[in-house]
Amino acid sequence: MSIDLILKLIDFLFARGFDALRWKQNRSAVKAQLEGWHASSASDDEKIAALDGVVAAIDDSSGEIKNL
Amino acid sequence: MRTKYTKVFAVLALVACAAQIEGCATYKLANGPLEVSYVLANDYHQAQLTAIEILKDPNVPPMAKGAIKKADAAGNPAIHAVADTAKQYAAIKAQIDAIKAAGGDPTTEKILEAQAALAALKAAILNAQPLIHELLTAIRGIR
Prior knowledge:
The complex is a heterodimer of chains A (about 70) and B (about 140). Chain A has about 70 residues and is mostly helical. Chain A has helices at about 5-40, 45-65. Chain A is flat.
């Protein structure tokens, strides 16, 4: 295995690591939300409100993506 | 052939596997249509946040940035479709729950309506998933 290939592999792993860390952090937050819903028997209205909140954030991000 | 890197890669694979299992655990908790919709939308938003950081990088070529923008232009309405059909399903489910709470039986028409709403939500989720994958592919193509 050449040094260049090893360095590229490490770059790839670090890049993956950053994304994996963000997604792992998000999964923890989402998991906590779902566990909270189950524990408190959250109503469908509450779940829809949470979904609306995420969709609003998605729209904000799409606006930013469009302008970058 | 075992090398001195074998253990490193084995540990990395174990970490990646744990992350996947945690991901699976999240989906296991998402055992209702509204929960699945929420998890899907969150996944998409997290991908967008990564995409934004890439777009801010001046070293990323314009063509690569275009691929991200194109993927998001398709993904955003797909997520909206998931949210809209989720609300329609929740509304019909609420009507059925109210009927049952009042001691009545929902009509066949109402049940069919609920089944159709659930089918529409499932179709919206299935439609959104490859578009989320498109955005992730555009991101990974740069990284």
